[in-house]
Each structure stands twice: as structure tokens, then as C-alpha cells.
Give the backbone structure.
Amino acid sequence: MNQQTVVALTQRLDALERDNRRLRQLMAVLVVFATALVIITQLVHVADAQSSRLVVQSLTIRDATGVDRIVLNADQRTTDGRFIPSLEIKDERGAPHLSLGLDSTSAAIAGFFGRLGPENSYTPSVVVSFNQLTNEGSVTVYDSNGDGLGRIP
């Protein structure tokens, strides 16, 4: 090989090494940029997930056997057409044991169920109600047939 060929090959090799070094630097910058982009995207996603909210009219939570155990409703209507919220907590058969809600006068009601009544259904044992508008409250006790035994105004 003559001197000119060696010089030409050396120059081409230097240019190739310089291009290769620039390409590696560019790849490093792209990797850093892509990593930063992924991290920022994840941070934004986490922030969105933390500020999210679930909006439904009714929510039913079932156990592993498919029985409704907790029912939250906001779409029950009163006789005059107003919507009233309610929450029911049920046993393993789906029978209610605790019911919280509002009646048609917007009085808060807590119903405690525990007696097996007619037709194998639970009837309320005690119902507590309180109306904030009128400052009136009451406690009503029921027998196993659902008949009121007494009421404390």
C-alpha cells in the first residue's frame, strides 16, 4: 500500500469514528429524552388518577358468590318525584340488615333489620328517623310480622 492510500484510509476511518461518536451521543440524548418523557407521562397519569372521581347513580358491591352485599342508590324516587339516596348493607343471603336513607320529607332514617318475618324476608326491628328541618325524631320498634309495637316521638 502506498502512502496516499494509507492517508486516505486513515481520513475515512477518522470520519467514520467521528460519525459513530456523534451517533452514540445522539442516541444517549434520545434515550435520556425518552426516559424523561415516560417519567413525566407516568407522573401526569398518577396525578390524574388521584384526582379522578367515580360518578354513578347506583353502586352495588357483590361478594365472591355474586350476592349483593352493599347497595348505594341515588336514583330512588319519592311519591312526589324527588330523588332520595339510600344505603343498604346486606347479609350473605342478600337480606338487608342496615338501611340508611331519607324519607319523602327528607328525614334521615336508619333501619335495623334482624328478624325473619313472613315469606322468609327480613322485617325492620328498629327504625330511627330524624328530620333536621323540623327538629323532630322518632324511634319505632317492630315485631317479626312487621307490625309496629311502639313509637317514641
In short: Strands lie at 58-62, 68-77, 83-90, 96-102, 108-116, 122-131, 136-142, 148-152. The mean pLDDT is 76. DSSP finds one helix and eight strands in the chain.
